[in-house]
Amino acid sequence: MSRNYELMREMDGNQVLSSSRSIGPSFIPEERCNRALPRQLAGDVMEDLVQRVFLQTTQKQPRMVVFAAIDHGNGCSQIAASVAAALAANTRGVVCLVEGNFRSPGLPRMLGMTDRRGLTDSLLEEGSIQSFIDPIWSGSLWLLSSGSLGANSPSLLTSERMRERFAELRKTFDFLIVDAPPLSRYADAITLGQLSDGMVLVVEAESTRRNTTLAAAKKVRSSRVQVLGAVLNKGTLPIPT
Question: Has this prediction a pTM greater than 0.90?
Answer without folding.
Answer: no
